[in-house]
Amino acid sequence: xxxxxxxxxxxxxxxxxxxxxxxxxxxxxxxxxxxxxxxxxxxxxxxxxxxxxxxxxxxxxxxxxxxxxxxxxxxxxxxxxxxxxxxxxxxxxxxxxxxxxxxxxxxxxxxxxxxxxxxxxxxxxxxxxxxxxxxxxxxxxxxxxxxxxxxxxxxxxxxxxxxxxxxxxxxxxxxxxxxxxxxxxxxxxxxxxxxxxxxxxxxxxxxxxxxxxxxxxxxxxxxxxxxxxxxxxxxxxxxxxxxxxxxxxxxxxxxxxxxxxxxxxxxxxxxxxxxxxxxxxxxxxxxxxxxxxxxxxxxxxxxxxxxxxxxxxxxxxxxxxxxxxxxxxxxxxxxxxxxxxxxxxxxxxxxxxxxxxxxxxxxxxxxxxxxxxxxxxxxxxxxxxxxxxxxxxxxxxxxxxxxxxxxxxxxxxxxxxxxxxxxxxxxxxxxxxxxxxxxxxxxxxxxxxxxxxxxxxxxxxxxxxxxxxxxxxxxxxxxxxxxxxxxxxxxxxxxxx
Length: 497
Fold this sequence. Notes:
Layout: H1 5-15, H2 25-32, H3 40-52, H4 56-77, E1 82-86, H5 96-103, E2 108-113, H6 116-125, E3 133-138, H7 144-151, E4 162-166, H8 175-187, E5 194-200, H9 208-218, H10 229-235, E6 240-241, E7 247-248, E8 270-276, H11 287-293, E9 308-310, E10 313-316, H12 323-330, H13 335-338, H14 347-363, E11 366-373, E12 391-398, E13 406-413, H15 422-436, E14 442-447, H16 452-460, E15 464-475, E16 478-487
Parallel strand pairs: 1-2, 1-4, 2-3, 4-5, 13-14
Antiparallel strand pairs: 5-8, 6-8, 7-8, 9-10, 10-11, 11-12, 12-13, 14-16, 15-16
Helix pairs in contact: 2-3, 3-9, 4-5, 7-8, 8-10, 12-14
């Protein structure tokens, strides 16, 4: 009798549960993704969803593009070669092992699902490249202990793992339980591991709600839940968000642009995020930790970029959708002289500027924020009436003198957004966060003496002029004098309560 007789018997029992007379979540999704493993009952259900929310048809190509961009990033840039894909779905071209093993053939992938049809097709069709490993785990997303136990038979959990939760958490109705699942899975893998999530959004496209109600009516045994940006953020709380952070999937590192010969993708109501498990057990090290460890290897390589409220503006991570702000800044006669904004704008130069802003946090050299109009666009939080979410400038906190307890601030605002208080609101917000949350002992700001608007902004934001620094900085090939402004903890801020 073969050793796996009992396992085969269990598989046959589960296979007997496959019902082709009612729609099935995996098969409906397969049809929406352009797959062939579905029946007319599933196709009919999918068409009824698209009638209620036409954007449904655009979601599949967008999330597939996000998945493939994320996988290539994880292998080629993050150096991860082990993947735990939870909620595998029916096999399609471009599955996790195909994408990752096309970059590094030795990648190991554990697929997790509890749908008998999915597991049957996966075992029959998903085959590893030579040198790599592909395995299968029969477990439910709500049972992280079973997932981890099964993953140990395929993956080495003492080395970094990428946990792929693509759509899957929508099947967990309670947000607290979904967050606990992510936390338990992240706890089982070492530092340097990543978690990738995309999740249908409740706050980006209202017509999606009736489509989800229809889904839950047709497939009551497999209901799904929409979540807002803040709820998705809760799922990855305690993890370090990879820039550009939590954004619509088409705004994640050029996803919308597609590859060679591929169409540009339209925006869809799906939140996407990639996060990594921090060093030191996931503890966020405050500035006092930097000061203590500044000359030692314990300084973290990656900083956490939060979203900050700045009056009617938001300070958030840059996204590629912010390239229009870079275009306008490039045309300014002054901004390119004192910043790294390109003096001659091209689309490539604009994208390169934004990618450099992402690298600041990744390399631990500083925090670079887009100053954005309040609103839901560009990855900001909702809630500001009339806000567009578009980027109107940049503000950065630079850590070159971290070991000496000092950090410097620089900012710019595009011409079309000036006169609305963006600079002062952003400077106040960033300074307060740096002094209170990071406990930085001293903030510095340099202002050219002729720039009366920046002088007023500094003084209204609680910065004190310390003196004139002669020939302090090169601007446009010429050494220029600069006023040195500073702000310390406890310094009064005009107009503050």
